[in-house]
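Data deposition worksheet. Section B asks for the primary sequence of the deposited chain exactly as it was used as input, without tags or linkers unless they were present during the calculation. Section C holds the resulting structure in token form. Section D is free text for depositor observations; keep each observation to a single sentence. Incomplete worksheets are returned to the depositor.
Section A, Depositor: J.P.
Section B:
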Amino acid sequence: MFRGRRQGRGPGLAMMLLAMQVFQVGLDRIPPVTLATLIGNVVIYLKLFKIHWPSLGEVCVSTLHVWYRHDWRRLLFAAFFHGDEWHLYYNMVSLLWKGISLERRLGSPYFLYLIAVFSVLVNIVLVGLNMAAEHLLHDSSYISSCAVGFSGVLFALKVITTHYLPPGVQYVMGMFPVPSRLACWAELVLIQLLVPNASFTGHLAGILVGLAYVKGPLKTVMDVIIPREPSYTYRSGATGTRGNQSTGGPTYTYAQGTTGGAASPQANNSQARFTGGLSEDEQLQEAIRQSRLTGQSPNPSAPPQPQSARPNVHRTLTDEELRRQRVERLDRR
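Section C:
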């Protein structure tokens, strides 16, 4: 989120770089909700339609405007307005990659639901944090501090994205290696050092909302209102993919030897490569259940049985062979 002056509205270098990023990825590879959200933010920033567009001062979220003056609409609008084109550029590039990952994993309807809830909830937490900071630090500037931008929502999405990845190392700003579970906290501090005008409490609010989703009750509450419908593939080792996509039923992903639902690089080319938020244990349990329903496949590593050793259960014995077997049994007695 951003606190500061509003610059001109003409498309400049940042807008051209954003367009290059989008076309480099490919419009056909960007999920619909991610693409629509990105375009919507650009349209709002450039004021492409001849309607009344509110100024930043009319939509920015602060404790003063929301809590004391009861201007509740700011809770919704603030996330979709940006201070300048570079603010918009960095937020939309971040949305592009997080959206591609999460929307394919969660499904477009649920991802749209997630963005709508987070856009409001992050601003609510921001108001509460600023109010608490004013009381604890006796600094009235927290009450009047006004913020706009999508970065609070992006911090929440980053927490979820990191939660679904296997433990490892991420490079913050492409330079500083940190454990993946701490990447959002490192970015929080680093962004504040590099961009002092950024809203620290806005970014912190995003992290707290993300943690409430992956560690707290938020996901459970949201799933009660609108449950997420899984649509994934089941993949077991090197045996390829299997599922019931043709029948319209749900399938799941379980890859042997992976953690956190990570897929192979080849599987990353399709939407079915994600686990949809299932933990490794949940994927394994679902894979076992599916195998019981469909029947176990033969072990591909087992050597083929010689033809002569295989019993021919369909062969009918002749009368002579039956008599010979009876004689052999009598001789053994």
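Section D:
Strands lie at 169-172, 176-179, 234-235, 241-242.
The chain has 14 helices and four strands.
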